[in-house]
Design brief:
By secondary structure, the chain is mainly alpha-helical. The protein is built from 13 helices and 4 strands.
Amino acid sequence: MGELPLDINIQEPRWDQSTFLGRARHFFTVTDPRNLLLSGAQLEASRNIVQNYRAGVVTPGLTEDQLWRAKYVYDSAFHPDTGEKVVLIGRMSAQVPMNMTITGCMLTFYRQLGTAYVSATTGAVATALGLKSLTKHLPPLVGRFVPFAAVAAANCINIPLMRQRELQVGIPVTDEAGQRLGHSVTAAKQGIFQVVISRICMAIPAMAIPPVIMDTLEKKDFLKRRPWLGGPLQVGLVGFCLVFATPLCCALFPQRSSIQVSRLEPELRARIHQQTPGDEVVYYNKGL
């Protein structure tokens, strides 16, 4: 076996991002919660492999599969711009366990939603409590779906608030080759909308399937005799749903999304037509 060539583009995902299947495979790797179990030494080893390869140095005996594995381990733990290690709960691989805990507890303790969710946004709390009051005379199963409405409202409010600077100054847009052309608020709005949709869709399986299952199980003698199993069982069901929902919903829209030049702000549109008259589409990073 010869030495690994240096022309593998590890700056981009391994799979074709123009297809949903390619994006899904990419995000299944990015959000793999098993990466949280890797030791500091394993993370450093992956960083060395990636940095050496980018510098033109191939680790002896390295295969292409090992290179891609190192790239995704490196990306899962280190900031893409600063190169610093990201705090554990802030990594994409922490999405499933963190959301599993939060969502599972919300579904388990939904009757105390006002207290449990007081630290969330005012809009989400108002939505949840308003719907809770409207559904208190309906079957208990209906009430179990109140947390989903709260999560949907929270995403609609929190994501734009967290990215409000992008809504003020815009996000970078580039040509097909990656050359930066300027900043666009219109592209920022489209990207944020895509992320909100992805996050809401991500919550649907985890917050719709477990309540139906738990409503059925709680009528059985097994759980009636062991009520303490309700919480752990619900959290486990949520986790199972999120393992699949998180990467599949992240893959709904390309990470490198596109927008027609004709939809951009007039000043930016005029600048692009002046610099690159043939460009009809520009690209931007939608975020996560």
